[in-house]
Design a protein that fits this description.
313 residues; alpha/beta; Rossmann fold; 2 domains; 7-stranded mixed beta sheet; 8 helices; 14 strands; 29% helix
């Protein structure tokens, strides 16, 4: 058997072990073994417990805070490079630090660009991720980037709801492109929320642009952090006469009082993917797994076939 015919090996970072196991099951394989050595000061050292020489390896791990999650991905990539892996794909369902994608005020870092350079320096020859906070982050890399869309997994669920008066909404102006893409496939109306912030995670004022009275509204966004914007938008739309309000958010960061806000809000339900593990489950949060999508794309990457058929938008 030639090197090109060898089956790839899948490995998981600790923070994404559950998702990685689902992906491996969908791929019809098992995760490889990585041993983590811990030092008393908090430092850790990953080591492969099996050979990866000449193989294609997929390292699966979302890089949500704290920074140890990113550091673990970098160390495992470096270990794969030094162990003579042939191709090294960083599978990052959630790409952390993506909100720092531009210099929007004086004397700040562009964190997303820094992370891109770190991944390449560590040894990643390909990046696979889903619903980047900003599409232009793909241009920060000199390596191929497979940017997947969560609409592929969410669209079947939306259709299963069979909502008669469906309207897609964006919680802010920045997400209008995403909202229009959903509405195009669902043949629905679109409304946009316009907000002004006092500071990060604090909304000063919000208005709804469009008609929501009597509509079944679905808000779409790439992530939900504190839940302030989303729940504010949901409550506002309910006040404006919406029949029901749901939300779809790819990455459930859910920090601070997000869970409490969701429970107390006008949201009927919040639909998320499993790119980030939930801290706790609630009756309002439904999880749709992204594992089948990533496994399918990983198969195509291994077989050197086109992945364009995996995109809905």
């Amino acid at each position: 058997m030639s090197i090109n015919q060898l089956a790839p090996k899948l490995f998981a970072c600790r923070q994404s072990k559950v998702l990685a196991e689902k992906i491996a099951k969908e791929y019809s394989t098992k995760l490889g073994n990585i041993k983590i050595t811990y030092f008393s000061d908090g430092e850790f050292q990953p080591a492969f417990e099996e050979s990866v020489r000449g193989r294609r390896v997929f390292i699966i791990g979302s890089t949500f805070p704290n920074s140890d999650n990113l550091m673990e991905m970098l160390l495992i990539l470096d270990a794969a490079k030094r162990a003579s892996a042939r191709h090294i794909t960083a599978v990052m369902p959630y790409f952390g630090w993506a909100r720092q994608d531009r210099k929007d005020q004086p004397r700040v870092a562009i964190g997303a660009k820094l992370v891109a350079k770190l991944l390449e320096a560590a040894g990643a020859t390909r990046i696979m991720t889903m619903d980047l906070h900003a599409d232009q982050i793909q241009g920060f890399f000199e390596r191929p980037v497979d940017h997947l869309f969560a609409s592929t997994i969410f669209m079947p669920y939306i259709k299963s709801l069979q909502l008669e008066n469906l309207t897609i909404a964006s919680p802010d102006m920045g997400g209008s492109k995403r909202a229009y893409a959903y509405s195009k496939h669902l043949h629905s109306d679109v409304v946009i929320c316009y907000k002004q912030r006092k500071k990060a995670n604090v909304i000063g004022h919000m208005e709804v642009i469009g008609e929501v009275e009597g509509k079944d509204v679905i808000l779409v966004d790439d992530m939900i952090d504190t839940g302030g914007t989303l729940t504010h938008a949901a409550n506002l739309m309910k006040e404006r006469g919406a029949k029901s309000v749901r939300a779809i958010c790819t990455h459930p960061i859910l920090s601070g009082t997000a869970y409490e806000r969701i429970e107390e809000s006008a949201l009927t339900e919040l639909i998320v993917s499993d790119t980030i593990p939930l801290k706790k489950s609630t009756s309002k949060i439904k999880v749709v797994s992204c594992a089948p999508l990533f496994a399918a794309v990983m198969h195509k990457v291994q077989d050197n076939t086109s992945i364009s058929g995996q995109f809905l938008m």
